[in-house]
Amino acid sequence: MEKITFTLADNQMVEFYVLEQTVLGGISYILVTDSEDDEAEALILKDLSKPGEDEALYEIVDDDDELEAVSKIFQEMLDDIEFE
After folding, report:
1. Which Pfam families does the protein's record reference (predicted)?
2. What is the mean pLDDT of the chain?
3. Which of 6, 11, 16, 76 has the fewest C-beta atoms under 10 angstroms from its C-beta?
4. Residue 83 CB neighbours (<10 A)
5. Cβ atoms within 10 A of the Cβ of 56, count?
6. pLDDT tens, position by position, 20-50
């Protein structure tokens, strides 16, 4: 499982494991978790960076409709993942 480091707005560094990635409507999404444990909490992040930028800019998906659509895709991709 790939591990990536994010820099938050306050310059704090946070590491996440990338479980899967997908593209929906031309937007890239990644499913990440902060632990490799079976009961770990996961987040869906949306890539907001523009083409050609050196670094990606991600934000947590919090729109209910968008979250539902993307989570369904990730559930199909990873049949051992359950979203609550």
Report:
1. DUF1292
2. 88
3. 11
4. 12
5. 13
6. 999 999 999 999 998 887 777 889 999 999 8
